[in-house]
C-alpha cells in the first residue's frame, strides 16, 4: 500500500507539472495584462518599467520556472487586476465554492442514490418510469438555464428564496460559512440544486444500471434461496457491490462540481473561486488564472488518490490483487 501511494504521488507531481505548463502556455496568449493595469495616458516608458518589474520581459522558460518554484511554496504572485496576493484572493473565495459544492454533493448522494436503487429494484413500476423520464430533463437542460428557471419560479414568482449572493455569513477564523444563518442556508438551496442536478441524473442512472445487473447474478439468487430477507439482499449484498463504479464516477463528479461551478456562480452571483476566475479572464489576470487551474488540478489528483484508496475498503478482492506477485518475482 505504501509503494502504491508513493507511486501515485510521483504521478500526481508529474500531472501538476503538466497542468502548470499548459496553464502557463495558454495564458500567455489571452492578452497583454499591462493594458488592464494602466490607463490610456500611461507613457511607454512607464509601461516598459512595469513589464520589467513583473518579469514579463524574461524568456518563457525563466518565467515558467519562476512560476513553478513560487507555486510549490504557495506563492502565486500578485494579481494584475487588484495588486493583491493571489493566494489571499483565492482563500477568501474558497469557502463559498467548497460549501456550495458540498451541498450539491449531499443533494446528489441523498437524492440520486435512493432514486437509482428504487428504479433498479422496481424497473417496471410506473413511478420508476416517471423518475427516468424526469431525469432526462436533468441531463438535457444546461445548468445556466436550470438556474434561470429556478430563479424565475422560486425567487421572482414565489419570493421564497434569494436569487443571488451568499446571504448572511459567519466568520470563523479565515473561513466564512453559510451554515450558521438562516439566510445563508436559504441562499445555498437554488445554486446547490442547479450545480448538482446534472450529476444527480448521472449517478441515478449509474446506480440503476448496476443494480439491474447485480440483481441478475448467481449470488443474489443463492441469497434468496437461503431465505434472506429482501432488505438484506438489496442493501447488504446488491447495493454494496454497486459501490465501486459509483465511487469512481462520484469522485470524478465531485471534482467537476468544484471545477465547473463557474456557470452556477455566475448565474447566482455567488462570490466563489469560479467567479474570480471569470473576472480574471476578462482582465487577463494571468497569476489568478494559472493558480486556479493548478488548484483544480491538485483537487482532481487528491480525489483520484482518495478514490483508489477507497477501492480497497469497499472491495476486499482489490487488496489481494494489489499485494499479489507472480511466482518467481
Can you walk through the features of this model?
This protein is mostly helical and 329 residues long. The protein has a domain of 196 residues: MetI-like fold, CATH 1.10.3720. Helix content is 73%, strand content 2%. It is built from 15 helices and 2 strands. A two-stranded antiparallel sheet has the order 1-2. The C terminus is likely disordered.
Write the layout of secondary structure elements.
Layout lengths: L1 H25 L6 H5 L6 H11 L5 H13 L13 H36 L4 H15 L2 H15 L12 E3 L2 E3 L4 H33 L3 H8 L4 H9 L4 H17 L2 H6 L5 H10 L3 H29 L1 H8 L6
Antiparallel strand pairs: 1-2
The number of helical runs is: 15
The radius of gyration over CA amounts to 24 Å
Taking all residues together, what is the mean pLDDT? Answer: 80
Helix percent band: over 70%
Distance between the termini: 18 Å
Shape estimate: globular
Strand count, sense and barrel status of the largest sheet are:
2 strands, antiparallel
Secondary structural class: mainly alpha
Q: Biggest sheet: strands side by side, in what order?
A: 1-2
User: Helices and strands, in N-to-C order?
Assistant: HHHHHHHEEHHHHHHHH
Tell me the CATH superfamily of the domain at 89-284. MetI-like
Unreliable stretches, pLDDT < 50, 5 or more residues? 321-329
Summarize it:
The protein has 329 residues and is mostly helical. It is 73% helix and 2% strand.
Question: Which properties best describe this structure?
Answer:
single chain; 329 residues; mainly alpha; MetI-like fold; two-stranded antiparallel ribbon; 2 strands; 2% strand; globular; disordered C terminus
